[in-house]
Amino acid sequence: MNWEPYVWLGWAVVYIVVGGVVGIGLVLLAASILPRLIDRMTPHLDEGKEMARGNQAVAIYFGIVVGACILGSAS
Q: Where are the domains of the chain?
C-alpha cells in the first residue's frame, strides 16, 4: 500500500493547524499592542478621557485606525 499521499495529507494538516495558531497569536498581539501605540503617537490626547466625555470624533478615529490595523495584520 502506498502511504505517501497520507503522509502529505498529514503534513498539510499540521501546516494548517500551525499556521492558524500563529495567525491567531499575531492578531491577538496586534490587538494588544496597537491601542498603546496609538496612545504613544498622540501624547497630548487621552483617548479614554475624551471618549468618556462623549467626544465621538476621537472614538471614531481611534476605532477605525486600530480596527484597520488589526484587520491589516490579520490578512
A: 25-75
CB contact at 8 A, 26 and 73: yes
The set of long-range contacts for 66-71, using a CB threshold of 8 Å and a minimum separation of 24, is 66/34, 66/35, 66/38, 69/30, 69/34, 70/27, 70/30, 70/31, 70/34
Cβ neighbors of 39 (< 8 A, separation 6 or more) are: 47
Answer whether 58's CB lies under 8 Å from 51's CB. yes
pTM (predicted TM-score): 0.66
Q: For each of the chain's 75 residues, which pLDDT tens digit applies?
A: 889 999 999 999 999 999 999 989 988 888 888 888 888 888 888 888 888 998 898 888 888 888 888 888 776
